[in-house]
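SEQUENCE-TO-STRUCTURE ENTRY
===========================

Backbone structure tokens: a row of integers, each naming the local backbone shape at its residue.

Task: work out the structure tokens from the sequence, keeping to the layout shown below.
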Amino acid sequence: PPPRAVGAPGTSAPSAPRCWYRGAPREPGARWTEPGCRSCACQVSTPTSPCLSPPHQPDVGLSRRVPLQGGRVLCEAVSCPVVCSHPLPAPAGGCCPSCAGCLHEGVARAEGDVFSPSDWNCTVCVCLAGNVSCISPECPPGSCPNTSPADCCSCQPAKCSFRGRTYAHGARFSLDGDDCTTCICRGGEVECSFAPCPVLDCPQHQRHLGPGQCCFTCRDPPAPAGCFVDDNGVEFPIGQIWSPGDPCELCICQADGSVSCKRTDCVETCPYPIRIPGQCCPDCSAGCTYMGRIFYNNETFPSVLDPCLSCICLVR
């Protein structure tokens, strides 16, 4: 233990200077960290000379207490020198980031960890002492037409030179004066093909290739000259009227080649009309039909039911 200061009777030894901070003593030269990443230190100044009695006063055996200047606490923000490029964030309760690992693109990497970036360009990175070092593959210059998504080198497909012109990869063009042929540049080579044509549903003799057209088209069908009414090829000219077999039905050939038919309704106006073969409606103006026999106008004949009766045909 340090020697204790012994004074004259009735005196006390001076206490060592120290710092008081928030109710707790701190030794001179002590350093500590406060919340909020503040670094504090206890500093004590050199003690002043003892205050003695004036020389002209006699010593009566009592000495005064030697006053010492007390310590003071100085605090400042913690300074964190970062010596690496990708430090890890400060741990819980800590103030300074750590170079014992790496933080790359938001992902914490351990010391010595080897990884690839998220862009998948075959670059390889390694974490060493908080620094991230990346190495990219060396690709040969020039174009590489045979590429695949798994290749690490980004290649520029070759251009095409065709008939004195240069086309970029993937460009589509037509031959001079021939719009029916389409060409495409693929990796330095030109592929040409004819324009696809639709399938036609018209017979060969109705197909037509117009000026500037690439594909045949169907001609418009000619205007009909008449009407075909059956599979035997019977044709009626436009405007022709005929009966298809029933004398009460009449048909007409219309201008668009269609057939329109209409049936005639007969209204009998006399009790004994004459039915003429091939005629639709009975005729009341030519005579009378009685018991299967035909009698002309004003002709008399005996009754079949009563021989004493005489009958006459009257046209009204």
